[in-house]
Amino acid sequence: MTEIEEGRAAAEGAVEPLDLVGVGIGPFNLSLAALGDGLPGLRCAFYEQRSAFRWHPGLLIEGATLQVPFLADLVTLADPASPWSFLRFLRERQRLFPFYFAERFHIERAEYDAYCRWVSESVPGLYFGRQVDAVRWNAERELFEVDFTQLGAYGEAEALGRSYARNVVLGIGTAPHVPQALRPLAQAPSVPVYHSAEYLEHREELLAAGHVTVVGSGQSGAEVFLDLLRRRPLGRERLHWLTRSAAFAPMEYSKLGLEHFTPDYTRYFHGLSERVRDGLLPRQWQLHKAVDAETLAAVHDELYRRMLLLDSGAGHDESGGDGGGSGEGDGRGRAGSWPDAVLTPGVRVRTAGRGGGSQLELHLEHPEQQERSVLTTDAVVLATGYAERPAEGMLAALDPYLRRDGSGRPLVDEEYRLVLDPAVTGSVFVQNAERHTHGVGAPDLGLAAHRSAVILNAVTGRESYPLPQRAAFTRFGLREQQAGASAAGRSATVGV
What we know:
The chain has 13 helices and 18 strands. The protein has 496 residues and is of the alpha/beta class.
């Protein structure tokens, strides 16, 4: 029986409704599905409109690593014995001993993507090519109705389906954010302005461009700038890296600093007032929006290496470019030769438009200097981060039941459950859409397994996965936060 047929049968009362329907299959809902697979009797289905699992394919740059250790896989920090761990994946691929000798704590992004794809192709109950259109509450049956469209190979609608579930979890992820000033150029056809999420797709075009500007100083911006720098001709790099941040700053990666990504800090943050939380988040940017120190060092090392080559009169570099360095091939070099790369923090793009010919103009402002200038460039990469995908359309029918905070955002209880009107006895959980209530750990892969375990414990109404009462040496605040207390004071249950 297909899930469409099963949905129809559930509507007629022929089969038991699902305990949980997941919307979206990114790493977070994939973690939930993998841990849910270990719970006998739990009936789940996860829907994803894409045809297969893909994790930031445009940023799988050669050598780029995760910013969390390999133990922060989909399951290990909640269930080290799970068959869906990264170490199990290595054993299946016969790479366990090579990985052991490699002594790698941080794995490459491409390897993490391959691991997630392995899980996505093996865990039952995952349905790709399913676009969820609406989620409604059926008060008479006390179930959620989840309407979806089955898509064909080219994204065309093939069939309509409906599932019935006691609980729903939204894991629809984030979408590339483009600043307002650059949207007209980014949306114009045939204009080389790309978000970093599309970087690899357009890398050859960017390498062929005369001058390239990278906007944004987070990890993605640093990796894109470094990759372009390594591949551009010596002495003719013609790169500009700019950001609004006051500095190209390193990520806070001290051991005690990392305790902000523990369940302890999440509980502390959730217990603060809305006003305090909103004031705190912008000040914590170095916890999640800066660059790891190794990448910053690699940028500096590459710039210095190029300075040495130019100073020695090198006319060609390893990438095969024709160089054009200051020595012009005469072997004499020139003291004080600098690569043609500019790094400028503390500036913002006020407006942007087309210049003469095919060139682009970025109108810049430096607030500290109170000065403005125009940067002419041939291509732009926007490493400007991601924003939560809006779910308003999908959840329109639930809007009357949603409880919101003073800024109009959905309230989320400690167990990652949207706070709904008591008339709705089912639960809607969210993944990576609760930074305003749970803090900087919301998008962090290191908390994925723990959040999944919290949700599954709430769904099953029992301690399906034992959770630590304490995870940090730091005690955040003067009043200790109690683990496991739900702000809503209720648990969803399964039909097992």
